[in-house]
From TrEMBL:
Pfam name, any one: FMN_dh
Originating organism: Mesorhizobium robiniae
PANTHER family: 2-HYDROXYACID OXIDASE 1, S -2-HYDROXY-ACID OXIDASE-RELATED
Coiled coil: none
Cofactor(s) essential for the protein: FMN
FMN hydroxy acid dehydrogenase domain location: 1-285
Keywords for this protein: Flavoprotein, FMN, Oxidoreductase
Stated name of the protein: Isopentenyl diphosphate isomerase/L-lactate dehydrogenase-like FMN-dependent dehydrogenase
Amino acid sequence: MSPAELLDLANGRTAAARGIPYTLSTMATTSIERMARAVQGPLWFQLYVLKDFEFNRQLVRRAEETGYSTLVVTVDLQAGGKREKDLRNGISIPLRPSPHHFWEGLAHPGWSLRLLRGGLPQFENIGGYLGDTSAGLTIAARVGANLHAGFDWDDFRRIRDWWKGRLLVKGVLHAGDAACLVAAGADGIWVSNHGGRQLDGAISSVDALPAVRHALGSEVPILIDSGIRTGMDVIKAGASGASAAAIGRAALFRRRGRRGRRGEGPRYHLGRDGDWPQALRAAQF
Ligand SMILES: Cc1cc2nc3c(=O)[nH]c(=O)nc-3n(C[C@H](O)[C@H](O)[C@H](O)COP(=O)(O)O)c2cc1C
């Protein structure tokens, strides 16, 4: 199993042990089915809408059949952004090995050994997409070229019809969009700018949040992510109108090398930060 897949599973188990829902991506390095077998806890499935609606349908059906409780439809990556950091760091799809990667490998021998032992990550949910069975990163390139840039309201309603459970839309920053999505059947809105990874000129999600809350009223669940790093950030999100906060990279940053290798997963410290009591007092919770 690749180190990336071990990490995916460890994150899922760690979240489940704390009763936190784990969202498995279309592009995850573990499959919908394997994650469902490994985790006894709430699981959500995140869908990237591809041009091939029969394939989208299959992904949604697999999540339904394996007991995922919530479908998260991401709408802020229908076309790839120009990720300048990735360009600078030589992260391309497919990966083109360079002297930089070689030196990084030498500087991190433990990581390199695990990679050699476990192999490159595979994007398990989309293996065979469009008949492509080549290496994972090449498949990812293929999927990237097949994101449905023309995704529209009829497409959204189609997906809404497929999924009978709770459906959230992720990647919303505009209050008007949020209101239209709820009117079209979304059960909740996930305010996000994709961790700032997608569009360099996007508004921050915490700045977008109050207007979205105002447009939706107090009952509709609103999640927020992008930049949540501490308990204080969670409090600020709550005070700005979020029902819950989600983390992406914090789960990876907190991972301890040795513990992670034994599959114990990352440690979540968000609830233990020293800044919580002070922030709670300040916010008068
Ligand atoms: C390595 C990486 C991969 C990601 N892959 C996906 C993905 O497949 N689907 C998705 O909806 N968001 C994806 N995201 C965005 C996260 O879901 C989330 O919106 C973002 O990481 C939140 O910001 P934070 O990392 O500052 O917490 C990814 C983020 C990172 C860092």
